[in-house]
């Protein structure tokens, strides 16, 4: 049965490859709802970003991919590369299912000292560690159907060889046991692997990326537990001259606005154990459409670069796109910032995106009078400044489709309503108001950056000290911004059109 599936999957892949050279190719990336400056797969289904690594020359984006349909199915790793994380080049599928199972989420590193022995010192291997999901064993109600596998590439991620003695971590009996994140830990001179096991994190250590030993667990009783823990990430960030460790944990369901979301913990890591005295629950992004996000390994300047999947398991498989489904968030740089006396994880779109901007001349006086800002298109960046305590504004199309935003600085609230944003009929959950109740209260004014890309809106408050990502599906372009508060404590700082990347 399984070999029949592989033949079928290979045949479908060949067919898709053949179609992609046909005349219809010219339509690709112009389909309704297709983001123009966000990464999305050329065709078919995508979910989590995987194997985020810089190889010394370029950034790799592997991703959960189903090459035969626009809904989730037997997972492969799709692949794209970029010099700047702005313009992406599609590559052939990197990892295919095999006798151990399909290929779930995971991560990649450059094994620069060839500790694994799988390359040579002159040509160190790129190593990927991922979860094998044995769907047949799951159907038989076994409990050890998710294990951790390894693969290596000696040509910078183009072709891959599975490690001969997979899996490298066996499952001791957890139904959910997945999404390994590996990284080099300088202080303990070892590789670390972070993995989730249902309701907690497990940390492993290794000298060679092959033999792993469990060193500790974290989180049984802390943080949000409204759903299963997924896609961990653990990394160091500096703040006020000190090193802090940040743990990302995606959960589904149980997000602050329903369904999927990614929480974070700030704490300490000594090479074996992660500890945190954080009691409040904090979210990387308070919107519903930023899930399973993780960060890059081996970045050239040590910056902490993050990409998430711009959807939510509540409706991801039902959104009204054809031919392809879902996109990644804008790549974002993560920092720690002290806000109202405590550290928060700040995320802002990467600087390299500036190259896509064409700044627009705006007559701010007449916008204040007319209360309307006409945008050059629905690919735009708008920076607003709010001095009043409350404000309301809406982004809308000529068909009166709209996304409404209400800010109340005294309460620290931002509410986003996309119930009239176009197609919403594919999910009841989609129309619920989105409430962000964690805006800082100490500053005298607030900046709000809006990044609009045809079917997505990413909102960054106070340079990303809180963010909210939402997708929408309007028939006409959302290219106007209306507010009765323009000129009354709400002003426009900057407007740019954003070029397409395809
Ligand atoms: C998160 C997730 C991961 C898993 C993958 C399967 O969205 O559920 O936990 O590895 O997707 O596609």
Detailed description of the structure:
The strands form seven sheets. This protein has a six-stranded antiparallel β-sheet, with no helix packed on it. A six-stranded antiparallel β-sheet has the order 24-33-26-27-28-29. A five-stranded mixed β-sheet has the order 4-3-2-1-20, with no helix packed on it. It has two domains: about 350 residues, Tachylectin-2, Chain A (5 Propeller); about 150 residues, Exo-inulinase, domain 1 (Jelly Rolls, Sandwich). It has three helices and 34 strands. It is globular and about 70 Å long. The two termini are about 40 Å apart. It is mainly β and about 500 residues long.
Total of DSSP H or I helical runs spanning 4+ residues: 3
- CATH A-level architecture of the largest domain: 5 Propeller
CATH topological fold name of the largest domain:
Tachylectin-2, Chain A
Low-confidence segments, given as residue ranges, are 14-24
Structural class given helices, strands, pairing? mainly beta
The distinct ligands, each listed once, are: beta-D-fructofuranose
Q: Work out the oligomeric state of the chains in this entry.
A: single chain
- Which term fits the overall shape? globular
Separation, N- and C-terminal Cα atoms: 39 Å
CATH superfamily of the largest domain: Glycosyl hydrolase domain, family 43
Tell me the radius of gyration.
22 Å
Largest β-sheet summary: 6 strands, antiparallel
* SS elements, strand count: 34
Strand content: 35-45%
What count of domains describes the coordinates? Answer: 2
Helix content bin: under 10%
Mean pLDDT: 94
CATH top level label of the largest domain? Mainly Beta
| Main β-sheet, spatial strand arrangement | 23-34-25-30-31-32
